Protein: Trichome birefringence-like N-terminal domain-containing protein
Amino acid sequence: MVMVKTKKKFPPRSPPFFFSANVMELPLRRSNAKIVLLVTVALLLLTIVIPIYYPLLGYPVYLLKHYSTKSSSGSSSSSSSSSLSAVDVQAPVSAPPPRKADEDDDDDEDGIKFCDLFSGEWVPNPKAPYYTNSTCSAIYERQDCMKHGRPDTGYMKWRWKPDGCDLPIFNPVQFLEIVRGKSMAFIGDSLSGNQIQSLICLISRVDYPISVSTPDENFKLWNCTYYNFTFALLWTPHLVKAIQADPNGPTGSGLFNLYLDESDQRWTTHIQEFDYIVISAAHWFYRPSVFYENNQITGCHYCLLNNVSDLTERYGYRKAIRTAFRAINECKNFKGVTFLRTISPPHFENGPWNQGGNCVRTKPFKRKETPALEEGHLEIYKIQLEEFRAAKKEGKKKGKKFRLMDTMKAMLMRADGHPSRYGHFAQENVTANDCLHWCVPGPIDAWNDFLLEMLKMEEVRSYAEKVFSSDNKM
Structure:
């Protein structure tokens, strides 16, 4: 037998990852690497990026879809007409009903038709609340109804539904993107602070605001560092210069000297620093006060002083809010938007606040069963609307922007949303129930739903101005 000598076979070694004996493998592996990279990026987009930023994608399309422009006049240019048609195509099939002529139309001078956000009904929202006192530390002690043992939770599970459209639940990412690099001030009394609590808790899910120390105890400041958004509370419950003359006064709530023709410089000297201001104050005018004009006493509200006429709180309020609006219109360096939030109605039943009045309801009123606004508050509300219209008309001549945040009708239905006796522990010696402020979380969160939607409307106006301006140049 002939023995054939053979070479011992060894298994081939794997080539280094950067080399292949088969020249065809190189493009194939490169292709696989590209596929893996693409799949990874797609997964990131689908699972992280899009869910977070979805509300902002295609924002101009959102603007055109949800708001429509009025038809142009016959004298408009063909280029303007074509632009208007393009916008109208995107408008909803069923447009919201037009506002009545006596209502405050923000759309008339802008050529844009907006839905009336403030006429509607409260509808169930089982997904709420979107934060609690365990996830947000900004809730004031007196509005923390959860902490103080309120047994029901239904007051948190409603949302406002306008008649002609929908009001989206507050989206913190969308809000912070709109106000990125901007600033906002809430000007007024403790209800302005009540709204800020809600805002802090809502946006803290994305970027927790940092409190910034200021030398003035009446000027509180917060900053969202990632979005470079600053917002402030400017405490000014009378809007005008006020001095407490007596800490007790005739009713135990103090006696104030109000200089009705002098604005409160604690806030008027700061407004030029802000892009938006939300102004609201009313309830402190029910406290006894003496009215000064041209540094002379002209009357008072329940001051019980000899030879001083009682002109009522309505006189003082009209003069004060007129002075406040005049200060805004005369501030040349303020280029921002002014929102007036209308009066927030209290709901004391079975007596006034200092005589056992309470608010123990657990569900909102339906529209047809909502009680009428108490006469004194109704007069204040009417004054707000009248003075707002006058200020807006005057401000238009100077390029000022005034917007009405008419929350009164929605909040009139929410007698269930106040702290009542749950603004303090049962063992505390507190005799009065709080039926003025709002539980947090609670109905007051809707104020920030309104605020965000109105900021979107400002984006619409800005976008439309750019479109129409470019059309006119063509």
Notes: The longest strand covers residues 255-263.
